[in-house]
Model the fold of this input.
Amino acid sequence: MIRLLIVDDEPIIADGLFETLLHLTHLELDLYKAYSGMDALRQLKNNRFDIVLSDIRMPGMNGLELLRHIRSTWADCRVVFLTGFNDFDYVYEAIQNQGVHYLLKTEGYPKVISVVESVIDDIRTSRQWSELVSGVNERMEAANQVLQKEYLLHLLNGASTADREEQFEQLKLPLDPTLSILLMVGRITTVRSDGPTYTERTRVDYSIQLIVERHLSPAMRIKCAIDDRGRLVCFLQPLASSIEPDTLEQAFANVLMFATSMLDVIQQSIQLSVQVPISFAISNRHTSWEESGRTFARLQYALDYQSSIDSETIVTVGESDEDDEHRTDDEEIRLLLNKIGMLDALLDDGRVDDLLPLLGQAKTLLSRLTSGDTGVGMEIHYRIAVSLLSYINRSGIASRHEDEIDLSKLLRADHPDSLPFAIDYAIGLIPLLLELRQSERNRKATKVIDRIKDYIADNLAGDVSLTRLADIVYFNPAYLSRLFKKTTGMTIIDYIHEIRMKEALSLLENSDMKIQDISEAVGFTSATNFTRFFRKYTRSTPNEYRDLIRVKKSKLD
Done:
């Protein structure tokens, strides 16, 4: 929607331009008018305008003075000046300004329409922000550290690895996407009783990351990231120069040997530099990217277990360690909890194809738990339940659909045997929740649109500008315009024209009101503009239409 302000001290010109442009629905204009420079200035202080179509010579504040105010407030606003033959000095000064056009008043409406269309095309082209978009790569260079971290952690949480090679290239990750990885996880312990500030914690996290990378990078490719729980995750690979097809295993063995040998040195360096203890768990086998999430879960489990012994442990975790007979289930639990952390985002995006398999994994795992695993089962269940309950509340569907959502089935899980049944209910509930959310969105949108329609019907002769309509429902004007078209299939301008036409036809058919009075009743500033509008839609004048109706009625009588 393009917002255009018409400024002319001659009302007949301003009104004529307003009515002419109002009926060019393909331009999707939100139109305003002012009868003086000062009136225009008041409107410019309260609204952003894309185009100002203004007379250049006006009493009080002329067009050039108005232009200076426009440039100081809305620098991107285009200005089209209407000039007379004797305005050369004004025109010469005006055309020194970028984004200013001018045309002669004597050239008529077709020329005005042509210039306005050209300016609108220019605005829409500029809004593609081609120069800004071309600069995204430069910005991404600066943001690459964050993007690399987010992507790698996303992989650990079970994201698809199908486009891994393309993503690695785009993000310029210093790792080989076709090669397996050796994973290492660090647990950073906060020693202050009151906890560090956000800035302090960020400084410590990145200092640790830098220390680890500096110590290990001479002997391997390494990329580290800090996850949302403050854990250091390191992805290790052999240097490209040390890899041969028949020496890959040895290359990874060298990486493991070097890393494990350096971990105590790294711990000391971190303690001396940032005064925090850190524990490390490193896998003794390299793993594929597809299986990295499971290895990550295994390392987390090892760190959690070892942290009960000391805050600065170093442990190497193998595939066949037998320290705990429940290791496999514990790893699956950890991996599942990592994935459940993505549940809120999956629900908000409506990704059923990812949601249902995730809950299916939870149900399978819960069905294997014994009575001694009640706490773990409850954690899995209630983390899922809380995500669903939060979704229900923020979607605004709880109070309106109490009969369809039985929260007691979702939240009641007081025994291990009842947990799979609770997850079953959650699995069945998700498609319903997504459907109810869409229904609630549609209901709210329809309520807003109905309110707009009622206001238009009651105020056809008043202010039905997009800005006024948006104020009624506390929406941004551009958003309201999109919502109206999305909901009704037509623009607000087209709808207003349709309602004005229906009301005009009704008044012509069922009343003896004068044409001038009818034109004012349906929101036109003059009978001439009303007649032009009416002829466009019916191919007859208002009087011709009224006469035709009277003839038809007389024949019926």
User: Anything to note?
Assistant: The longest helix spans residues 419-458. The beta strands are 2-7, 29-34, 51-55, 78-83, 100-104, 182-188, 221-226, 231-237, 278-283, 314-317.
